[in-house]
């Protein structure tokens, strides 16, 4: 993981995601998941590009099954966008960066120039 993407665990989920001042994009993934590996560099790129407006984290579903079950994660990769502690959008599968950016732009204030 890069400095733009944080590791989220069951112990840190409440603080890092639910209580975050910024919107948070959470990538639910697993080591063995090939589509997760394809989307990882896209998530890194989005994290860097939107660093001033969102927080981006990765949650390994194998290591953190309680959170994954709580949010009914049945397919990975699943990206959930949280705002004010609530899910405002979902992206499932290894999608192109443009699709993730479109979701983010729907929910975020425009960047300040």
Account of the protein in words:
With 113 residues, the protein is of the alpha/beta class. Helices cover 35% and strands 25% of the residues. The chain has helices at residues 13-18, 34-49, 65-70, 97-107, and strands at 5-7, 24-29, 55-60, 78-83, 86-92. It has a 5-stranded mixed β-sheet with strand order 1-3-2-4-5.
Fold blueprint:
Elements (H helix, E strand, L loop, with lengths): L4 E3 L5 H6 L5 E6 L4 H16 L5 E6 L4 H6 L7 E6 L2 E7 L4 H11 L6
Parallel strand pairs: 1-3, 2-3
Antiparallel strand pairs: 2-4, 4-5
Secondary structure tally: strands: 5
> Can you tell me the overall shape?
globular
Number of domains: 1
Work out the helix count: 4
What is the C-alpha radius of gyration, as a whole number of Å?
Answer: 13 Å
Reported for the largest beta sheet, the result is: 5 strands, mixed
Strand content: 15-25%
- Which structural category do the helix and sheet elements fall into? alpha/beta
Q: CATH H-level name... which superfamily?
A: Glutaredoxin
Overall pLDDT metric: 94
């Amino acid at each position: 993981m890069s400095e733009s993407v944080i590791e989220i665990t069951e112990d840190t989920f409440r603080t890092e995601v639910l209580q975050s001042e910024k919107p948070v994009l959470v990538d639910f993934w697993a080591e063995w998941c090939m589509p997760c590996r394809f989307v990882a560099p896209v998530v890194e790129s989005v994290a860097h590009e939107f660093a001033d407006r969102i927080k981006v984290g990765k949650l390994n579903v194998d290591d953190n099954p309680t959170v994954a079950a709580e949010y009914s994660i049945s397919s990975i990769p699943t990206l959930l966008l949280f705002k004010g502690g609530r899910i405002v959008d979902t992206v499932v599968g290894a999608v192109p960066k443009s699709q993730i950016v479109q979701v983010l732009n729907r929910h975020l204030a425009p960047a300040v120039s």
